[in-house]
Specification:
With about 300 residues, this protein is an alpha+beta fold. It is about 35% helix and about 20% strand. It is built from seven helices and eleven strands. A six-stranded antiparallel β-sheet has the order 5-4-6-7-8-9, sandwiched between helices. A three-stranded antiparallel β-sheet has the order 1-2-3, with no helix packed on it. Helix 1 crosses helix 2. It starts with 8 loop residues before the first helix and ends in a 6-residue tail after the last helix.
């Protein structure tokens, strides 16, 4: 039988090119489908992580993953989740489910807005689409906007009782913080007491700093320095002029007790990280820049906290 002739080389090239086009098209469809399918779970994972990080900053959630509550001596002890988003003391460290974390967040944290004068308002009153606002300005920073994002921290609900929304005790506020580290942007939360000065806690939930060096800003051991620090720096005489005092938390190069000793500035400073001076500078700058925009609000709540409690 006569041998069949192979197809011309240009025809082979056409087949090869057609195969590559079809394969690329199929791969594109698969990737697009996967991206669409995974979008919702990815957004849910991001929401869960942001909720966890804010609860860590407020010290409702331990950085090691379990709920905690203060006892009568104001010492943090493990807590367990009960119905209605109520936390009760526990004898062991119980690790909550994702649904429980989101429920506590829903019950204990509430977002709102403040204007440049520090006056609070709601998304509805400001006629701002909440989801769009939070998404659009997360990267650039809410502190740069005419209406700035902030959160209330509510006290643990009373077991067996119903609390009116207006009567719920506010035990602090959370300010979103962002800035630039060594390699990229850094994002975190700063929780403060109702006096507008004392720090409850912090967290950095998104950073791309060098592992083992600048990335330590996300480690519980380093973050544990912040509770009890002051946002407004005291003067040399130990007094604080809230209208003029420098505002922020400084990451020093070295140890606070060696660099600042017992000076008033030490109350607004934390130890730096070895080999991560530029990351520390980025953290210092982030607190300074963001808190400057929130200063009118901090002065407002500090003034209110100084007022005597009204009794019936």
């Amino acid at each position: 039988m006569p041998e069949s002739n192979p197809p011309p080389s240009n025809q082979q090239n056409t087949y090869t090119l057609l195969f590559m086009v079809v394969l690329s098209f199929v791969c594109a469809i698969i990737l697009s489908t996967l991206a669409s399918v995974l979008k919702v779970p990815q957004e849910m994972a991001k929401e869960l992580d942001r909720s966890k990080q804010m609860l860590i900053a407020t010290r409702i959630l331990s950085p090691y993953g379990y709920f905690q509550i203060q006892d009568k001596q104001e010492t943090f002890v493990p807590a367990k989740f009960t119905s209605g988003g109520i936390l009760e003391p526990a004898n062991e460290q119980l690790f909550p489910s994702q649904d429980q974390i989101l429920e506590i967040y829903r019950v204990r944290i509430q977002d709102f807005l403040i204007n440049d004068q520090g006056e609070p308002t709601t998304f509805q009153k400001a006629k701002i689409d909440q989801n769009k606002y939070i998404q659009d300005f997360r990267k650039t920073g809410y502190y740069k906007e005419p209406f700035k994002l902030i959160y209330k921290i509510f006290a643990n609900p009373v077991s067996g009782g119903k609390e009116d929304e207006k009567e719920r005790q506010v035990i602090g506020y959370v300010i979103p913080v962002n800035g630039m580290g060594l390699w990229d942007a850094i994002y975190g939360y700063l929780a403060i007491k109702p006096d507008g000065d004392d720090v409850i806690g912090i967290s950095w939930y998104d950073q791309k700093e060098t592992p083992g060096l600048g990335a330590n800003i996300s480690e519980p051991e380093w973050q544990s320095q912040f509770p009890g620090k002051h946002l407004f720096q005291e003067s040399a005489n130990g007094q604080t002029d809230f209208n003029t005092a420098p505002l922020g938390i400084t990451v020093v190069k070295g140890k606070v007790n060696e660099v600042l000793a017992n000076s008033p500035k030490a109350l607004s400073a934390v130890d730096g990280m070895a080999g991560a001076t530029l990351t520390g500078n980025g953290v210092t700058n982030a607190y300074r820049d963001v808190l400057a925009a929130y200063r009118p609000f901090l002065l407002r709540i500090h003034k209110e906290s100084d007022q005597p409690v009204k009794t019936k």
